[in-house]
Design brief:
alpha+beta, 18% helix, C8orf32 fold, 8-stranded mixed β-sheet, 646 residues, 38 strands, Immunoglobulin-like
């Protein structure tokens, strides 16, 4: 029998030997990857790329309904500073996630090793997102400051998860300006639990399925973004996977449909979270006692919420999915989207108004739930109130948003509504073109030198409503700067005074502004050249593409209506007017007219309507031509003559 010292020496020898063996094995695997910056790769796959993924291998080992191991090996060449973010050498962890392996090596353009990083060399910080006051996630990440480009990062990780609610999906094409030489994704399901799999757009990129849950993509060219194209995820290749029996931080769930998933959320994440203090119940009942309808009660509750609470992100609990207790939100007077939506429902429950918690994708760009594939999706929570055959949607995180107003963030998309009976996919409010109005009127006094003074009124509605932008609370200098930026076609604009009126009941925001400029119309001899469209000129024309590849997608329509009356100083008279213009296209319409009213008055009218819709890529040129025409006629001139005196 070996003595203790001999045993220790043997263990040290075996450990050393095993380390050498693993290192040799790893080296043999890595030898398949070229770490240099290949000129041919850059000219072909890496054309238009800020980064090129040479290899990205992901293996997911599902070991139980509540345990999986994710192994990753990623090699990416970074061509410039913009591509730095594609290094992606980081791993998140918390009490359910353990990092077992973490290492990276950086190479220069010639493929020579610059530095190797072990796990202890990675920075370890709280995974704060800039808005969360509480967050129980941490992240270890590589902080590498590039001296020269290009460089290559080779990254290996192995992470053990005790939660299977979020199985990593596979998106081999990782965004715009990123080429891919090879990417692979494989799942080893070591359980008898069925997996739901959804394959999207693989055939468009010649991606191969080489086995069960095993996919390989090669030579994916970098894609340049195009104006008015669909969201990236709408056409990029992706494989989504979900376990039909899963675990979310110790809570087992069943997911065979959106109905099942919603029922699991209701029973496990929402029930028993809505208890309120008796004093609050008494207060909210007193506030609503004279309300004549459920909608009137809901408006009172919503105003109570906006006055009492404020939004603070809280990413703790069950995967960031379980809301804070309603009594805690009430006591602290803050919460995140989950907590505030749940708190509002608790208040509505007290006064007998039916409402439902809902999960959704929030953001200016419209993103829907996949009705055919249920999984842990969404990034935001809202509340919805049944109203006959329709639903009223409440954004509970804003202190400024009118009751039921959801334009530009959660409008026109599918949401998962959580009911006691299960989950239901319901579409949110669609704002029609005729509702999204900006109406501008002005009385303008034009003098002999080409300067003017004007009183301008702008009323905004629907998706153009400006009342949720916080304009009223901005410092005065910022408010004035906003007008100057808005009307930057007037070089020496002076904002003399302004007033805002925010009618939240009718959802209309009114801006009354008094402005002036010493010089606006250009003087040529005894003539003034006046561009009458002072306050709503088109300033942006979509870019030209030699070969358009994407369809044209207009998410929201709108209607601009402008009417200005010019009062000409005595001594000015009309010499020439632009004849009326009217343009009709499948995308919308445009019309202007300039009328001489006599007595030194001119009336300028403009109407621009853009319709929501999706059009084939072949229509892009016609769409751009439409905007070029608008820009041209927005710059139409009136020729005024200055009377001379002897």
């Amino acid at each position: 029998m070996l003595n203790l010292v001999s045993q220790l020496n043997l263990m040290m020898y075996l450990k050393s030997y095993l380390g050498i063996f693993i290192l040799c094995l790893t080296t043999n695997v890595f030898a398949q990857t070229n770490f240099s910056s290949n000129i041919l790769e850059k000219a072909t796959i890496g054309k238009n790329a800020n980064a090129l993924v040479k290899t990205n291998e992901v293996e997911i080992h599902i070991q139980a309904y509540n345990k999986m191991l994710v192994k990753s090996h990623r090699t990416v060449t970074i061509y410039n500073e913009t591509g730095d973010s594609k290094g992606q050498a980081y791993e998140y962890y918390d009490e359910t996630t353990k990092i077992k392996t973490l290492e990276a090596t950086v190479y220069n353009a010639k493929g020579e090793k610059i530095k190797r990083y072990k796990e202890k060399d990675f920075l370890d910080v709280a995974a704060v997102d800039g808005i969360s006051i509480y967050n129980d996630n941490r992240v270890k990440y590589l902080k590498y400051a590039a001296i020269d480009y290009p460089y290559t990062i080779d990254y290996i990780s192995e992470v053990e998860h005790k939660m299977t609610a979020f199985i990593p999906s596979w998106s081999p094409l990782e965004g715009h300006y990123t080429g891919v030489k090879k990417s692979s994704y494989q799942i080893f399901n070591e359980t008898d639990i069925p997996l739901a799999v959804k394959e999207e757009h693989l055939e468009d990129y010649n991606i191969k399925k080489v086995g069960d849950y095993h996919y390989v993509a090669e030579d994916l060219l970098a894609i340049k973004p195009e104006a008015l194209s669909p969201e990236f995820h709408a056409y990029a290749p992706r494989v989504k996977v979900a376990m039909q029996t899963f675990d979310m931080k110790g809570i087992q769930g069943v997911n065979t449909s959106w109905n099942d998933f919603g029922k699991w959320m209701y029973n496990n994440l929402l029930v028993d979270t809505r208890t309120l203090p008796e004093s609050v119940k008494t207060e909210i009942k007193a506030l609503t006692k004279d309300a004549s309808s459920d909608i009137e009660k809901a408006k009172i509750v919503y105003e109570y919420l906006q006055v009492k609470t404020r939004y603070i992100s809280v990413q703790v609990g069950i995967g960031g999915w379980k809301p804070m207790l309603a009594e805690d939100v009430d006591r602290l007077s803050y919460g995140d989207c989950k907590g505030l939506s749940n708190y509002t429902k608790a208040l509505l429950d007290v006064v007998g108004v039916p409402s439902y918690y809902a999960v959704i994708y929030g953001g200016k760009n419209i993103r829907n739930f996949d009705r055919e594939f249920s999984a842990t999706e969404g990034n935001h929570a809202v509340l919805t109130i049944p109203n006959g055959d329709n639903y009223i949607w409440l954004e509970c995180t804003s202190q400024k948003t009118p009751f039921g107003y959801v334009a530009n963030f959660t409008d026109d998309r599918d949401a998962l509504v959580i009911t006691p009976e299960g989950g239901k996919i319901i579409h949110t409010t669609v704002y029609e073109t005729s509702e999204n109005v900006l109406a501008t009127s002005a009385e303008i006094n034009l003098n002999l030198k080409g300067g003017f003074s004007s009183q301008v009124e702008m009323k905004s509605y629907g998706s153009q409503y400006r009342g949720s932008d916080g304009l009223e609370e901005d410092p005065e200098k910022d408010q004035k700067l906003r007008f100057k930026n808005m009307w930057d076609n007037v070089n020496d604009l002076v904002v003399e005074s302004f007033q805002f009126t925010n009618d939240k009941n009718e959802v209309v925001f009114t801006e009354n502004v008094k402005v002036s400029a010493k010089l606006y119309a250009s003087k040529t001899g005894n003539r003034l050249l006046l561009v009458p469209n002072i306050f709503n000129k088109l300033s942006h024309i979509p870019p030209r593409y030699s070969k358009r590849t994407m369809s044209v997608e207009i998410d929201r329509g709108f209607l601009d209506q402008d009417e200005y009356v010019f009062h000409l100083e005595k001594g000015l008279q009309v010499e020439a007017l632009q004849p009326p213009i009217s343009i009709e296209t499948k995308f919308g319409s445009y019309a202007i007219s300039i009328e001489d009213l006599g007595d030194g008055k001119l009336r300028y009218k403009r109407k621009l309507k853009l319709e929501k819709g999706t059009y084939p890529k072949e229509d892009y040129k016609a769409y751009r031509d439409f905007w070029v025409s608008i820009s041209k006629y927005d710059n139409s001139k009136v020729v005024l003559q200055t009377k001379t005196t002897n």
